[in-house]
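Re: weekly structure request thread

Next one in the queue (272 aa):
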Amino acid sequence: MLSVRALHAGYAARTVLRGVDLAAARGEIVAVIGPNGCGKTTLLRVLSGGLRYEGSATIDGTEVRASGAASLARRVAVVSQSAALPERFSAFEVALMGRTPHLRLLQSEGSGDVRIVRAAMERTGCWELRDRPIDALSGGERQRVVIARALAQEPDLLLLDEPTSHLDVQHQVGTFRLMAELCRDQQLAVVAVVHDLTLAAMFADRMALMSGGRIVAAGTPAAVLTPRTIEQVYGLAVRVLAHPATGRPVVVPDVTIDTGIAGPLEQAGATR
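Done, posted below.
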């Protein structure tokens, strides 16, 4: 599905990506992790056709740079952490914009498009918001509408740039559970930039850890999320535990915090 080889890209005279290799198959979630400024969002910009590049980035064998904007929009959908949304539009109207790549010039949406959008909004839990103005919604509600708009495009490849950054814990898990269901049911390929390492490990089939514009580790969550690798890249000592039910990695900072306040046991001991 997605194949990236020896990818170089950047802005003006500054190179950000340096020889990136990445792949994502249909039915697979690939989580891209790494510290701020390492090139994660730049990678997504290349894959969505928004940035020139050297090397190769293909979707089913077709180079991204050789695809027209309309053709690429029918195949690739993007959910960013701070999507610019038009004011005074309802949530339904914003989600309906996801059907635009499938319409001819000046063609209006039909009943089939409306059914697709409703299904997308129901799957993301925002159908009840359909009549509310988009600028009157909370950050989490807006994000769910943006995800619905992306699903309404019926893409083959879904690119997520910190898709859960404005969501509470319930909707963070719900969003990734939905991605996993879509991968299974519709054979989507999902590439998601995620900061929460444990959340990424819960749902990703594979992970790619970036540092300095390169992928320095790739593979299963267990292979990538090791204490040594995380400390080398993030500069933070951690403990990696196994989830008691799934066995997947749980990353915990290896720090001790002295609050200066004695707990009940310490207080009891002090009086003896």
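The mean pLDDT is 90. The radius of gyration is 21 Å.
Next request, please.
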